[in-house]
């Protein structure tokens, strides 16, 4: 089990909402949707675009560069031009604190 | 050139600029140049991903203010893990620590002939001011971006190489640039080869601590007068926690030739602009790039082969291998100016992917504004053929040995173009040491 890193408070992120954090040297996009937090790499696997700068529609984030869509719960690519998943990370909420456990294997 | 008070602010701020760079022993013209560069540094935005050249390079984790623009040399010189110092028989050498001279030596016979390798700042104050003034930042564009301006404003120490007219150095000149934990190197290298002279200059960058972070924000200017011939090697071998921002530019005069070899091996994040200007008829430039990235390294190299006059030739070959989660970016351009007829330009970039999770972006480009030219380019990215690995294993090699053999074979084409034997051997050793099993 990896290290849990605190990124923000629950109240810091509106629902729905998104933000980017530098977690152990990686830029991680954290999402707050329907009361639950999710985290994926802030990187589109098509062109390296900053995903969290895109539009959030339900559980889908749309890359601002070319419109590739990713499922924020799993990191799976849902549409072209992206074909590969972006890494997803575990999120733990303890009280008012949101922690991310970075998956170093991906 | 010690600072009077070590409690002064030496960060990349207003205060730091005046403490580190402005109030030094230096001529007024240099002070004025620094001042203008500092204004540009303040005005230019920190590069971000909305800028085309930076769209593939993640800078959001970079914290400039965690670094200092100056630090005193330690009382005891650290052990510097150079790969080349013991392999090269040199005619002169300089070792810099955090951009400033630690020691230097030069063959007295060559000193008699007027050749020099020494601290740039020291040389300005000791008889070389006029020559240096004519060339310093005459080639590099210090307004290019924030890092170029920062370098021009804050640089200290540096290296100056001069080879007078008609002098030929048989053995190489070596510059070892070392960086200590948490410090920065803003050294400027100025190399001037006068008419019909010949030299080999080798620069190697190393981190004293294998894991501590550091910052390099340097500039290299190379000026080759008509008929001069230079072999220049730049082996970037920092540890994998160092940030490396470099602007390197060579201007090659009539009948002059440059063989420029670049090793891109170290750095957490490297962003390099390598600019070759063919400025006189019959000038020639050969560029060799050897790139190897692993872990989460991000190495971005932007090359420009600029044909400014007629009958010029450039030939660029970059080869890169990637393993783990690394990312290589190569963006190359051949630009041929109007009237630069009979230009012959070639550029090629090949990348070998050693894992499923590595990523490469290779973007060749041509900008031809003249007729009657020959310019070609190409780029490839591919994985290792599993059958090749399997075949090697049937001959008794382990999977790692097989991968190493395939990777060495891949690089052989560019290694064969490097004419400095010890550099070729060092690069081969470093690559072989770093290759792990192919994860196809």
Q: Average pLDDT value of chain A?
A: 92
Envelope shape of chain B: globular
Report the structural category of chain B: alpha/beta
What is the subunit arrangement here?
A: heterodimer
Cα(first) to Cα(last) distance of chain A is 14 Å
Summarize the main sheet of chain B.
Answer: 10 strands, mixed
Give the integer mean of the pLDDT values of chain B: 94
CATH architecture of chain A: 3-layer Sandwich
Query: CATH class of chain A, please?
Result: Mainly Beta
Proportion of residues in helical segments of chain A: under 10%
The name of the CATH topology of chain A is Rieske Iron-sulfur Protein
Poorly predicted regions of chain A are none
What does this structure look like?
With 106 residues, chain A is mostly beta strands. Chain A has one domain (4-101): Rieske [2Fe-2S] iron-sulphur domain (Rieske Iron-sulfur Protein). Chain A has no helices and 9 strands. The mean pLDDT of chain A is 92. Chain B is of the alpha/beta class. Chain B has a domain at 14-279. Chain B has helices at 14-22, 28-43, 108-112, 120-125, 129-135, 146-154, 386-394, 399-415, 421-434, and strands at 92-97, 100-106, 116-119, 159-163, 173-179, 184-185, 188-193, 198-207, 214-224, 229-237, 242-252, 257-264, 269-278, 284-293, 298-307, 313-322, 327-336, 344-353, 359-368, 374-383. In chain B, strand 1 (92-97) and strand 2 form a beta hairpin. The mean pLDDT of chain B is 94. Chain A binds chain B through residues 20, 22, 25-27, 43, 47-50, 106, and chain B through 49, 55-56, 58, 60-61, 296, 327, 357, 359, 361.
């Amino acid at each position: 089990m990896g290290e849990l890193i605190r990124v923000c408070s629950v109240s810091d992120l509106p629902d729905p909402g998104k933000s980017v954090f530098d977690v152990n040297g990686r830029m991680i996009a954290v999402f707050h949707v329907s009361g639950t937090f999710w985290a994926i790499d802030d990187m589109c696997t098509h062109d390296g675009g900053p995903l969290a700068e895109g539009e959030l529609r339900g559980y889908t984030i749309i890359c601002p560069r070319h419109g590739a869509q990713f499922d924020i719960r799993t990191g799976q690519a849902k549409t072209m031009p992206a074909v590969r998943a972006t890494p997803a990370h575990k999120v733990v909420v303890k009280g008012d604190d949101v922690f991310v456990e970075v998956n170093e294997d991906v | 050139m010690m600072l009077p008070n070590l409690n002064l602010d030496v960060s990349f701020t207003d205060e730091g600029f005046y403490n580190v760079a402005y109030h030094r022993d230096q001529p007024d013209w240099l002070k004025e140049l620094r001042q203008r560069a500092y204004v540009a540094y303040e005005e230019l935005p920190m590069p971000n991903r909305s800028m085309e050249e930076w769209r593939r390079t993640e800078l959001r984790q970079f914290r400039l203010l965690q670094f200092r623009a100056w630090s005193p040399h330690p009382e005891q010189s650290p052990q510097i893990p150079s790969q080349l110092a013991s392999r090269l028989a040199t005619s002169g050498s300089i070792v810099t620590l955090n951009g400033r001279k630690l020691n230097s030596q030069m063959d007295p016979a060559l000193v008699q002939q007027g050749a020099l390798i020494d601290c740039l700042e020291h040389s300005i104050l000791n008889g070389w001011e006029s020559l240096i003034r004519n060339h310093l930042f005459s080639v590099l564009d210090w307004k290019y971006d924030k890092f170029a301006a920062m370098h021009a404003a804050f640089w200290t120490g540096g290296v100056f190489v001069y080879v007078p007219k008609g002098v030929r150095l048989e053995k190489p000149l070596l510059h070892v640039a070392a960086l200590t934990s948490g410090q920065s190197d803003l050294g400027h290298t100025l190399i001037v080869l006068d008419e019909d002279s010949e030299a080999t200059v080798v620069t190697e960058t190393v981190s004293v601590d294998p894991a501590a972070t550091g910052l390099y924000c340097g500039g290299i200017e190379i000026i080759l007068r008509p008929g001069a011939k230079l072999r220049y090697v730049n082996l970037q071998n920092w540890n994998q926690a160092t940030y490396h921002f470099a602007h390197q530019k060579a201007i090659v005069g009539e009948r002059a030739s440059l063989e420029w070899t670049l090793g891109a091996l170290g750095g957490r994040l490297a962003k390099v602009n390598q600019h070759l200007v063919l400025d006189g008829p019959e000038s020639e430039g050969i560029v060799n790039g050897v790139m190897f990235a692993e872990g989460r390294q991000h190495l971005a190299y932007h090359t420009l082969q600029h044909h400014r006059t007629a009958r010029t030739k450039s030939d660029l070959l970059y080869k890169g291998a990637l393993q783990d989660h690394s990312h290589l970016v190569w963006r190359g351009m051949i630009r041929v100016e109007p009237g630069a007829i009979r230009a012959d330009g070639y550029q090629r970039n090949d990348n070998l992917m050693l894992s499923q999770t590595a990523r490469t972006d290779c973007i060749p480009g041509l900008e031809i504004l003249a007729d009657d030219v020959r310019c070609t380019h190409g780029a490839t990215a591919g994985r290792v053929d599993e059958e090749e690995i399997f075949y090697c294993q049937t001959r008794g090699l382990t999977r790692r040995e097989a991968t190493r053999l395939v990777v060495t074979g891949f690089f052989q084409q560019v290694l064969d173009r490097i004419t400095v034997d010890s550099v070729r051997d060092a690069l081969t050793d470093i690559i072989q040491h770093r290759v792990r099993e192919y994860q196809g």
